[in-house]
Amino acid sequence: NWDVNEGAAFPEFNRNIHVVEPFDIPDSWTKFRACDYGYGSYTGVVWLAVTPSEQLIVYRELYCSKVTATDLADMILDAESRDGTIRYGVLDSSLWHNRGDTGPSLAEQMNMKGCRWRPSDRSKGSRISGKNELHRRLQVDEHTEEPRLVFFSNCTNVVAQLPSIPLDKRNPEDVDTNAEDHLYDALRYGIMTRPRSSLWDYNPVSHRTGFQAADSTFGY
Fold first, then answer.
1. How far apart are CA 154 and CA 118, in angstroms?
2. CA–CA distance, 166 with 172 (Å, rounded to integer)
3. CB of 82 within 8 A of CB of 108?
4. 188-207 burial, b for 16+ CB within 10 Å, e for fewer?
5. Which of these, 40, 131, 146, 220, is most buried using a 10 Å CB contact count?
6. pTM summary value
7. pLDDT tens, position by position, 52-72
8. Which pLDDT score is estimated for 171?
9. How far is CA 143 from CA 48, 52, 135, in A?
């Protein structure tokens, strides 16, 4: 397996099982996107779909640099114009911070363009939790006998980068943040949003069962 590098953070990645040929995503499947933004470095965006068996499919990527937030919003909306409903987008939460000015944040600029986002989890320990969740997703599910996460073969950048990301030599529980990790970070943000198949969607407002969601963000 030529993808296995010494010190690789995700040695379980295997092109033979984790990379599939593109196909038409059914409109009934839940779709969402995740983004790690950078102007001077790179911006990574991934689009994911949830199958009825709860498998995640990365079906599109966008990898670019020197693109402003508003231009990125236009690029994203254009890319998903035929996707039907995009349930939500999750974006690096640092883009909501006002950096010494009173103008709109980068996240607000994109939201005003109609490219809607919610902030990612960047709480203490979230990087480690996200890495562990990616390990779990790359495993083959014993019931479906398929990995819990696969990538379309046309997502060439994330397929190339994921197996080459090294571990942090000072902290083997995390990846080396000096590596090319923008698409990895976007993927991590996405898989940590508790994505669920539309088959399991539940709207307590439309059901008179006395159900009270403990978490208003995620609905359960």
1. 27
2. 9
3. no
4. bbbbbbebbbeeeeeeeeee
5. 131
6. 0.85
7. 999 999 999 999 999 999 999
8. 83
9. 22, 13, 17
Both structure tokens of 43: 């911006």
Q: Are 192 and 133 in contact (CB under 8 A)?
A: yes
Burial of 69 (0-12, 13-18, 19+ CB in 10 A): buried
Separation of alpha carbons 213 and 202, rounded Å: 10
Residues of the chain with pLDDT under 70: 1-6, 98-102, 199-220
Polymer length of the chain: 220
For residues 135 and 188, what is the distance between their CA atoms, to the nearest angstrom? 11
